[in-house]
Recover the amino acids of this structure.
């Protein structure tokens, strides 16, 4: 049996640690400047906690926006809890890092995409469209009427580090 270094999983762990560190800073000090996040996650992940009506509406994945209003941001080693506003309805969510598919901060053109693997270890094909262009009806909509136009984000794919 040939042993090898699993760079893909090491990179995923490091990038999830980066998300944890960023969210920990936001929980402590708030969002600086124009920073805001689009986070797409797997709503069917066994550890995701969202309202039934949200999981019914988004049965596969969902993109949330952390920008103008959020509350109760609690960051742990496994994931984060947050309350977001969905059409004037505050809803608590718990999102484990392992459920995150994309993390984008369009204010600085930064993005991460986590490729998924099926049970036999092969990668599943994913849409390569820019995650910052996800339809707004799938997001907790922020009030952006007084902000400059959003730039497209560059998404870092971890495919180049895998065999």
């Amino acid at each position: 049996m040939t042993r090898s270094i699993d760079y893909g999983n090491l990179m995923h762990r490091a990038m999830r640690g980066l998300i944890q560190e960023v969210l920990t800073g936001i929980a402590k000090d708030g969002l600086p400047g124009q920073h805001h996040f689009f986070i797409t996650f797997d709503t069917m992940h066994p550890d995701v906690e969202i309202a039934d009506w949200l999981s019914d509406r988004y049965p596969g994945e969902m993109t949330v926006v952390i920008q103008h209003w959020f509350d109760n941001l609690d960051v742990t080693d496994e994931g984060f809890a947050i309350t977001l506003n969905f059409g004037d309805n505050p809803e608590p969510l718990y999102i484990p890092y392992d459920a995150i598919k994309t993390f984008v901060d369009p204010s600085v053109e930064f993005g991460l995409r986590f490729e998924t693997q099926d049970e036999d270890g092969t990668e599943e094909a994913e849409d390569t469209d820019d995650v910052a262009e996800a339809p707004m009806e799938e997001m907790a909509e922020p009030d952006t009427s007084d902000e400059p136009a959003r730039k497209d984000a560059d998404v870092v794919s971890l495919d180049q580090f895998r065999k």
About this structure: Residues 70 and 149 are 22 Å apart (CA to CA). Strands lie at 37-42, 61-66, 70-75, 79-85, 90-96, 100-105, 110-113, 154-157. The longest strand covers residues 79-85.
